Amino acid sequence: MTTAIAGPAGSTRERAHANRTAPRLKQSRAPYLFIAPFYVLYVLFMLVPVLVSLWLSLTEWVGLGTPHWVGLRNYRLLATDVSFHRALGNTGVFVMIAVFVVVPLALLIAQALNTRGLRVRDLWRTAYFVPIVVSPIIVALIFGLIFDRQFGLLNSVLRALFGTGGVDWLGDPDLAKVSIGLVMLWRWTGYLTVFFLAGLQAVPKELYEAAALDGAGRIRTFTTVTLPALKPVTAFVVVTSFIGAAQIFEEPYLLTGGGPAESTLSVTMFIYRAAFQRQQFGYAAAAAVVLFVLVFGLSQLFNRLFGIGRATS
Amino acid sequence: MYTPPPLPRRTLLRGALGLGTATALAACGRDSTTARTSGDVDLALWTHDPGYEAFFRKGIPEADRLADFRYHLTVTRAGPADIVTKLLAQAVAGRGTPDMAGFEIGSFPRMLRGDISERLLHDFTPDIAAVPGLKNDLLPARTAPYSKDGRVYALDSDTPMVVYYYRDDLFTKYGLAKDTPTWEEFAELGARVHKDHNASLCVVSTNGSDTAQIVQSFQMLLYQRGGAFFDADQQLVLDSAEAEEVLGFLCKGLRSGFVIDISDYYGAAMQTALKQGRVIGLPMAIWYKSYGLVPNVPEQKGKWRVRAMPRFAEGGGTTAALGGTGFGVIKDKANTRAATDFLLNTWLTHEGQVRRFIETGYLPTRRSVFEDPQLRGLKDDFCGGQRLFGLYRDLLPDVPPQHTSPDQSILFDVLAGNLLRAYRGDVSPRQALRRTAEEFRDQAGR
Asked: Which of A4, A34, B365, B427 fits a disulfide with B142 by CB distance 3.0 to 4.6 angstroms?
């Protein structure tokens, strides 16, 4: 029995042990106490909403009163909802623009800005970065004026240069997507350029010197030195661009409202519309869960493809 | 005798903190629901329009005189859609709801979904019935949009009939008749004016970011022609011969130049078109003078006139209805009675409705007020001193009811897209309406 060792000597040892372990216990608790606020907030503002959304997606709720349990009905309806399919397709187009147009352009601009002897480099950097700090509402207002079919700046320029105008930038379903793409390009290219620029400045000069000694030209240096060296930055930029574009809301919401004929409706706009214009909170939650699963799954796939988080040999 | 030891400072601090937290939490608790029956009342009003705020503030002395309350008003302004969103969010939270809220007619249908209106809004039906003659005096066309199952949940701010605005000076200059009786004849004149002077006599909106605007252009003429979106039972009745005729008329007008498509009724595109004389006339609601013409082209003061719209040769009335804002009271609150009395004593009295038109330009919602001699004598400076009220009174019998549905936003989304397709000539008016009806039925069941 444990009491058998509780002699006077043992008591002394125990007291001594206790005296040593009490502060140790306190010490061992301290780190947890320090990191606890993060976990409490994470649970409150991340896990709880996610779980509530998941539960809400299995109900029908108008925003007031008690939600009614409908099981997987919302998901079944989403599977046959033409609007949701359109929203997924449009979001896919915006993701493609972000990953295959905006990212490469940002890389090229960063490369240009990194060139030796470039004058007023800081001015260029600022000029490219400014769009990201402009309020999206201002962006939408200005681009609304630029893209206007009859009185817009873009058509006026086209008319002056080529004698032809009247292009319905925001009214034509295909051109509306292009217009949103142009705004994305204007808004996000400079921001991503900053990341590439930081990456470029970290590439060791010796590599370029070695390439020069080997007689590599500009393009070969770019493909064999710059691109491999930028792989971690590129991976980060691609994944964040993908996640950002998959959740695109501001540009289409403010510029086209998802129109014309839902040609620019994104999934996040679909969710917003279902929840806050149609009072279908359960349905909106189901769409949000689908978006989450898609974005999470594809992000994981990208992470594996680019080897993000793995040590390089 | 045992004397308790003095409390350590830390314990005292903990106690104080606990007490403070409990007090703060209690203060954040649900609103008190003990009904106030008299005395000082601080009413919380949510509205999107500063004009309404000014109206209600000026109405306080009269409301004080007619009720047992002494009113104070706290006003919060927000966008029309935000008012509904925030109201529902606060209702879920169980606190922070206003006592009165102004629901723009396009946002109100959200309140009709499920049992939201029954749960949240005070039913004015008994209050209206309690005032002798009021029920018959209130225009049914303006209680219909805010009613459900025969109960009235909001009182409208306006009888927003649609009229025809035109530039008197340019009509004279171009030799255009100012009293063309039918739309069909008017469209022929419009085609000629467009050809000769690059000007248009009618406008449709193609504002992609605002489906309601796109729909409005069509809605005005549809309702004038005798068509509608929904019937009194909230069933879709859009797919009709009248709707096809009106849409065909607009599409043909776009091809001839009689109609011009503008991206925004209220913004830069319209301002440019008005200033350049590209738009010299348009059908629009009476409130458009204050919200569209005066802010965009103040320098054209005195040049504009208002007349009744031409009729459609095949039938229909002389006007339509577009817009409006219903003021509702939140039920089961301490101030519910006080807010109801306030609304009835400012918004619904004869004097209140006269003052409302003079101060805000919104037409009365009581039939009898249209006979008021003071209103009939008013001149409008922007419209060259025209006495407009007589015209409005003559149009009153033709104002159609606007029945809505909880699924109205679905209709607007699908209709806007199909209207644009028809305007562009991608589909025929018939196809556009059929597709709209099909898409609506597909989505409305969800």
From this structure: B365
